[in-house]
Design a protein that fits this description.
CATH superfamily of the largest domain: Hypothetical protein af1432
CATH architecture of the largest domain: Orthogonal Bundle
Largest sheet: 5 strands, antiparallel
Structural class: alpha+beta
Strand content: 5-15%
Strand order of the largest sheet: 3-2-1-4-5
Number of domains: 3
Radius of gyration: 25 Å
Number of strands: 10
Order of helices and strands: HHEEEHEHHEHHHHHHHHHHHEEEEEHH
Shape: globular
Length: 454
């Protein structure tokens, strides 16, 4: 689906509802806008068999892919989401190309219901049926309890997938009979979860101590790389290849002696040369897996080039003056996760400090990709421990959600006006943010919420 089609559909859909809301009749102006919508839908149906618009976590999805919108239409985009949520509409399915009159009736019905003092999903559905609108189906947005249950289920799945990915990486380093297909499944699962609940999955990357550093770090880099790929609008095929490159980018480090990897003092030249071999060793690890013939060259180049700077310097020396997109993405998230992880040979940085360093290092990181990374992470990235107004402490889940921790227990109740004062280090609190993330995905936490509200 072309981005221009999505852009135009959002523009005319949102403005058409507004027109119908104002005039509350099938006006000539509404017909003109409906003709435009019909045209865009017709163009899209040339490529697709159905079109489904779904609202999830204040985002609009087209056939399960999150809409990427430019700043010029962000107002219309948010207005459309707000209007649909007001009408309790969770999804709109165009089962086939509707007739022009169906589109007009549909838009008029939504606009007139928005203009009413009370909004009823059932009345909208009945009106559409009465008007003979058969090609457009609507479903009700889930109620809060159902939505919370779905969210917990997704978060459980995300935590489980993280653990599975680390277990897989460990397995392929000790077993001979392993293949690439399980890795592809892991990347696909991460991709689907990022579409559904991006902030929580990104928050899970604050977990740094599951198994060895290399395995945990590789899984984290995989998640963050795919998130960047989604934001850039990469195809599913490219996201799969990017995820594979990110998952395996550092796996060659297991072939380097631990006393070199974890040496607290300055490395000798010989030791540093061994470290610089790990991109080659990582590529070798993936090459010997069964099914590697399905791994494209760009994924292998992403592994080989992930320590080559945006300026062309770095290692290994493979005469690559311009690293590939995959390598430039992994370069950013690899550094970010490494800097925010406690290591014996370096002081850990806060997410804010790591982002600040990345912004300043324009010769190392692609500035255009850094901007994308910042848009994803925000000032306080998901998983950051924060201090809120009123001396309340918690863990950022998304820009609209903070898991509040009181007396060592997670509380769902957040202040109505959430004001973040600053980020805190783990040393400044008496709780483990990883345990907080696990708690908000559990049914036990749900039961506690119900008790608190009763």
């Amino acid at each position: 689906m072309k981005q221009t089609d999505i852009r135009n559909l959002i523009l005319y859909f949102s403005s058409s509802i507004h027109i119908a809301r104002v005039f509350q009749t099938k006006s000539q102006t509404l017909y003109q806008h409906a003709k435009k919508m019909h045209q865009f839908l017709s163009d899209i149906f040339k490529e697709l068999k159905k079109i489904e618009l779904t609202i999830s976590d204040n985002h609009l999805f087209f056939n399960d892919e999150r809409a990427s919108v430019e700043m010029g239409i962000i107002g219309r985009y948010r207005s459309l989401i707000h209007d649909l949520k007001t009408l309790s509409i969770g999804s709109i399915l165009f089962v086939n190309l509707p007739e022009l009159e169906e589109i007009v009736s549909f838009l008029c019905c939504l606009g007139m219901n928005l203009a009413a003092s009370k909004h009823s999903f059932d009345e909208i559905a009945a009106s559409l049926q009465k008007e003979g609108v058969k090609s457009i189906k609507i479903t009700r947005i889930e109620d809060s309890n159902q939505r919370d249950g779905i969210l917990r289920s997704i978060r459980k799945e995300a935590l489980s997938s993280l653990l599975e990915s680390i277990s897989y990486l460990k397995k392929i380093t000790i077993e001979e009979e392993t293949n690439i297909f399980e890795a592809r499944q892991i990347v696909r699962k991460f991709t689907e979860l990022l579409f559904k609940e991006r902030s929580y999955l990104i928050a899970l990357t604050i977990i740094k101590d599951i198994g060895s550093y290399t395995f945990n770090h590789s899984a984290n880099v995989c998640i963050l790389s795919i998130a960047m790929g989604i934001e850039l609008g990469l195809s599913r095929k490219d996201l799969l290849e990017l995820g594979i490159a990110a998952l395996f980018h550092d796996l060659g480090k297991i072939d380097i002696p631990g006393d070199i990897l974890n040496k607290p003092d300055t490395l000798t030249n010989i030791e540093y040369e061994k470290i610089k071999q790990h991109p080659y060793l990582s590529a070798e690890r993936i090459i010997f897996l069964k099914g590697v013939e399905e791994v494209p060259v760009f994924a292998l180049r992403g592994i080989l080039e992930h320590h080559i700077d945006y300026s062309g310097t770095g290692y290994p020396d493979i005469s690559s003056k311009s690293p590939t997109l995959f390598a430039r993405i992994i370069r950013i998230v690899d550094s970010y996760d490494a800097m925010t992880t406690p290591r014996i040979y370096q002081n850990v940085r806060s997410p804010f400090e790591a982002l600040k360093y990345i912004i300043k290092s324009k010769d190392i990181y692609d500035p255009s990709l850094v901007k994308v990374f910042l848009d994803i992470m925000g000032i306080y990235p998901p998983g950051t421990i924060v201090l809120l107004k009123g001396n309340i402490k918690g863990v950022m889940i998304s820009e609209n959600e903070v898991a509040i921790v009181e007396k060592g227990k997670v509380s769902k109740s957040a202040p109505k006006e959430m004001t973040v004062l600053k980020a805190l280090s783990p040393n400044e609190v008496d709780f483990d943010p990883a345990e907080v993330l696990a708690a908000i995905a559990s049914d036990k936490h749900s039961e506690k919420d119900s008790e608190d509200s009763s």
